[in-house]
Amino acid sequence: REGGSIVFESFLAEVGAQADLVMDAVTEVMEQKVDLLRRLQTMLRPDAICTSTTSGLSITEMGRRSGCGARLVGTHFWNPPHLMPIVEVIRGDETRPELMDVVTGIMLTLGKIPVRVNRDVPGFIGNRLQHALWREALHLDPENKTIRKAIWAAVYPERFHPVIDDEWQREQLARERAAEVAAGICGPDGCPLPRT
Q1: Residue 76 CB coordination number (10 Å)
Q2: How do residues 61-92 score in pLDDT, each as one tens digit?
Q3: Are 74 and 59 in contact (CB under 8 A)?
Q4: Is there a contact between 190 and 152 (Cβ–Cβ < 8 Å)?
Q5: Treating both helix axes as pointing N-terminal to C-terminal, what angle do 59-66 and 30-41 enclose, rounded to 10 degrees?
Q6: pLDDT digits (tens, 9 = 90+) for 85-120
Q7: Pairing with 35, which of 16, 71, 100, 152 sits 20 to 30 Å away (CA)?
Q8: In angstroms, what CA-CA distances link 148 with 100, 137, 139, 143, 162?
């Protein structure tokens, strides 16, 4: 509703009576999400909307198992969410169609770019496209030697040709690169390391 507010609440019982929309952001484990949504289902008003910030779990299965399928909408915020404006708004098989409009509108008011996903498919849209790019890049250079940097520069141009004017964003990219190097995900040049 217009003029509403975002409230972070530690106690589920407090949420039920007053929430218009609840957004689950628990660990990406189906059982945990289902358990939370099942408990919320008994507390929420009939018109309250549930959303889940899953990046790939089935909204249809989550809704079926929790009993809140008609009121459940998926919201996959692309990473990193503070920099990426895209949010996939996913409809499960039981999701009431009008809720897609409501959640899409909410994402717009948050300054996000909602992408409606009207079919609950594994990985939704973004993850499927990203994994297709990974597969093709590995196929182009299976030994990860010859055109490695060119491939990754094409896929992630901001890492290799920064056009970022914001000092904070440059520092954030440097922190992410350092963490990825430390974790063995990529080399100092920003390219993913070959898996052994």
Answers
A1: 25
A2: 999 999 999 999 999 998 888 888 999 999 99
A3: yes
A4: yes
A5: 50
A6: 999 999 999 999 999 999 999 999 999 999 999 999
A7: 100
A8: 41, 8, 11, 9, 18
